[in-house]
Amino acid sequence: MGRYIVFGGKKLIGATDIHGSKNAALPILCACLVNSGLNVIHNCPKITDVFNTLEILSKAGCSVKWDKSTVIVDSAKAHFIVLDDEIIGKMRSSIIFLGAFLGRFKKAVIAKPGGCRIGRRPLDIHFEALERMGAVITDNGRCFVCSVEKLKGSEIELRLPSVGATENILLAAAFAEGRTVIKNAAREPEISALAEFMKCIGIETNFDSSGVITVNGTDSFSDGEFRIIADRIEAGTYMSACACAGGEIFLRNAEASQMSEIIDVFVKAGSKVSYCDGGIYMKSSENGISPLNIKTSVYPGFPTDMQPQIMSVLTLAEGTSIIIESVFENRFSHALELNKMGANIEIDSLKATIKGVNALKGAEVNAFDLRAGAGLIAAALSCGEMSVINGSQYVKRGYESIEKSLTDLGAMIRYEE
Ligand code: UD1
User: Fold this and answer.
1) What is the DSSP string of 292-338?
2) How far is CA 372 from CA 107, 238, 384, 398, in A?
3) Which residues on adjacent β-strands are paired with residue 353?
4) How far apart, in whole angstroms, are the C-alpha atoms of residue 370 and residue 393?
5) Structure confidence at residue 120 (pLDDT)
6) Which residue, among 283, 328, 308, has the nearest Cα to 394 in the 3D structure?
7) In 330-366, which positions are buried (b, 16+ CB within 10 angstroms) versus exposed (e)?
């Protein structure tokens, strides 16, 4: 386990490359199981969640090879494995193997995911949908046991547009007899990327930005070659670092069209943002940070995965900001840590009231989840003193060498084992 040492108080000036998206890479790697063939996945981020996903694919008999940032997965010889405690405990999002397993092996056995740092994260939407497609799901105390004789194409309307449930249904639908229509599906760009990958391996899939996705099941797949989209949350994280520390940055490959709400929030807070095909340019506000009212929501709303980072920015605003967290019920662990740095944040259930202060001070703080860690690093970059951020194991789940990217941008940060 390691920590980040940050010497803040220095403006960020520079450019860095945005890596491939974590939340696009994970389901696409799961989807490599579908075609029993060769998959060449470019721009794959080197992060712990990807390494863990590849380990599951290897355990399930796939051959996995890296070539720079390209991963080649051959799933021809894949076989069934139990997704046990060890696997699910390491990475809760391994639940998105469920649909692919059920489709390819006609069964999936998944250890019950425990509580998660950011909320309960139940699976009812995943299960209801798969049952509608013909799966039988039982609970044997320690595991959920899912089996199916033949998946049936179905019309499924989701109670809420769960990202993981949409991904599981899509992959199960690839093997189903007939057509599956998902209504109120998740609309995130990462879902659209998964739908594109499915098309690339021969599955007729239609993603519609109004939240309806149709998939025509098949038993004839092809090999696939695909490039993972840029990580909009990584780009947003470096924008919050720039807003906290001040400065001027260019984020190569960042995709502005998938970040409208994030960009809008930084502009409202006073930053200048412009973009071109090659990336996003941002200049921090010269007249202070404006306070904001923000409510997290599903895409195209403001993402919950940017909530900790924007909270760090708003600790320095000229006035009082409100953040309502509407996606996860327990996602404010960073607020207490920011208060250790001199912020003034009060939490009342899903509402955070952030009274802006003139400056934060260096401190030793703890990250308890991935984005909380990113938010604390951004905050530390504003302090004219040294800070220590513990909990690097969470940050590494989703950022490929954050210390290197921030150093490219002119920050003084190092990682220490
Ligand atoms: C995914 C992302 C995560 C992001 C989240 C919301 C990945 C690997 N992870 O997580 O980074 O923060 O979307 O954008 O892509 N819910 C239920 N029942 C269910 C499923 C979900 O009630 O069966 C609830 C959850 O408790 C949560 C909300 O729906 O409150 C959103 O969850 P969901 O969209 O499923 O998030 P994940 O797929 O877990």
Assistant:
1) -EEEB-STTSB-GGGHHHHHHHHTTBSSEEEEE--S-SS--HHHHHH
2) 36, 14, 21, 11
3) 322, 346
4) 8
5) 60
6) 308
7) bbbbbbebbbebbbebebeebebebebbeebebbebb
In this prediction the pTM is 0.97
Confidence of residue 118 (pLDDT cuts 50, 70, 90): low
Q: Measure the CA–CA gap between 129 and 135, rounded to whole angstroms.
A: 9
Q: Give the pair of three-digit tokens for residue 302.
A: 């403001």
Matching residue, tokens 């996606």: 327
Helix, strand, coil in percent for the chain, rounding step 5: 35, 30, 35
| DSSP type of residue 37 | S
Catalytic residue among 116, 143, 244, 383: 116
Q: Residue 130 in contact with residue 172, Cβ under 8 Å?
A: yes
Residue 242 annotated as catalytic: no
Ligand 1 centre to CA of 191 (Å) is 12
Residue 38 CB contacts under 8 Å (≥ 6 apart), including other chains: 72, 73, 74, 76, 223, 224
pLDDT value for 354: 98
Q: Three-state DSSP class for 28? A: helix
DSSP designation for 174: H
Reference 357, options 294, 314, 308; nearest CA is 314
Mutate to test the pocket of ligand 1, among 90, 96, 112, 121 (most ligand atoms within 8 A of CB): 121
Q: Which two tokens stand for residue 132?
A: 């509608």
Measured CA to CA, the distance from residue 178 to residue 336 in angstroms comes to 51
For residue 403, give every residue at least 6 positions away whose Cβ sits within 8 Å of its Cβ, in sequence order, or none. 4, 413, 414, 415
Rounded Cα distance, 301 and 404, in Å:
30
- State the distance from the centre of ligand 1 to the C-alpha of 288, rounded, in angstroms: 34
Tokens 């990336």, residue located: 279
Q: What digits encode the pLDDT tens for the residues 190-217?
A: 999 999 999 999 999 999 989 999 999 9
Q: How distant, in Å, are the alpha carbons of 77, 177, 178, 241, 287 from that of 65?
A: 15, 33, 34, 34, 50
